[in-house]
Amino acid sequence: MKTVIIKYNAGNVQSVMYALDRLGANYLLTDDEAEIRSADKVIFPGVGEASTAMAYLRQRGLDKLIPSLKQPVLGTCVGMQLMCRHSEENDATCMGIFDIDVRRLPGDVGLKVPHTGWNSIHSLKSPLTAGLTENDYVYFVHSYAADVCEHTTAVCEYGRPFSAMLHRDNFYAAQFHAEISGNVGQRILENFLRL
Amino acid sequence: MLTKRIIPCLDIKDGRTVKGTNFVNLRDAGDPVALAAMYAEQGADELVFLDITATVDERKTLIELVRNVAHTINIPFTVGGGISSVADVSALLNAGADKISINSSAVRNPDLVNELALEFGSQCVVVAIDTRYVDGEHIVHTHGGRKPTELRTIAWAKEVEERGAGELLLTSMDADGTKAGFAIELTAQISGAANIPVIASGGAGTMDHFVDVFTTGKADAGLAASIFHFREIDIPDLKGYLSGKGVEMRI
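^ Those are the sequences you sent over. The predicted structure of the assembly is below.
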């Protein structure tokens, strides 16, 4: 089985690679279209700023390639946000795989932004959360989040409920960092690799 | 709900943990990787590695250590000590660190905070502040708390937040090593003034000290070293106790 991590200007993906190492998975970090298309699984990571990342994806044609993929694709953190319709972060038009917008978390209700740390997820209904328990904890660091919608497969609460996970057809996404979310995160990655 | 975090801190020299530990079941208590894995297994929410050496050769050892830790544990970890440039941070993040912590170098060159936030994102930039109460004021200190600066602690905390820090690691040098409790009042002031998470450090001696720092002190995380290393407090017991007191914990 071949897993590809999409390479673009979205920060440090070392932790994702180490997590795959721990699971004994073979992977390749690349932005090559043929390699991406021929992969069994595709991981679309992301740390950073949405509009800059989208500009880079457009430049490389990755904004057209990713939505056209047929194999299971997992977007994480900013990767997930870029798979949505639009992000409030510098007014970025995103790929629109998930029909929902990304909005800034409320910072005016005594809550610190970025939302940093371990938070519980509930209303779990993703194939990726098989074996998890309602209100298991995962590690978040983000200032923007997708609203809850028909594609939501896990919900987290921080000032307002938001989509911790999304799923539509072959596209999966997680707002948190599964790669550093302890055994819970490891299970989610394992479930993805087993799809 | 978002939990409060419990963070053991490991002091590193030449790639080994410095302070002794009381973990008899560990084959090599001086091995930071083994210790880190054990803390992760016990339910530590995050780890901080503080490198107390900084020569070029030792930096290479540190990078190797960071790589080994990142390969082994599946919780976030921060590396601090001797970091003064974008290149230093790049090397640590590429080796697998999730966050880095800067202290004296931020005081020397505050623009470094902006540069790091811009280059790598605020999420991985922790600014450590060592503070001491001098003549009725909280003053930022460097060099392990020995050298006073001109900076007032609360103003400095707000400044580094504006410059792009993602978290603050606040160590009260007055409380550090006393085991008489965290600097509750100052922690609450900083947490109220800054809109980024505050990791409180220095003074932890009992489980109730953690209750105080999370409730009255409004800290987002509590960091300690020797009480964990010498098993005066075990992390599972601490998290159970805090949970019983109504503090949200990942258990």
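The interface with chain A takes residues 1-3, 5, 40, 45, 70-71, 74-76, 93-96, 98, 120-124, 166-167, 195-197, 220-221, 250 of chain B (CB under 8 Å). The longest helix of chain B spans residues 56-72.

Shout if you want it in another format.
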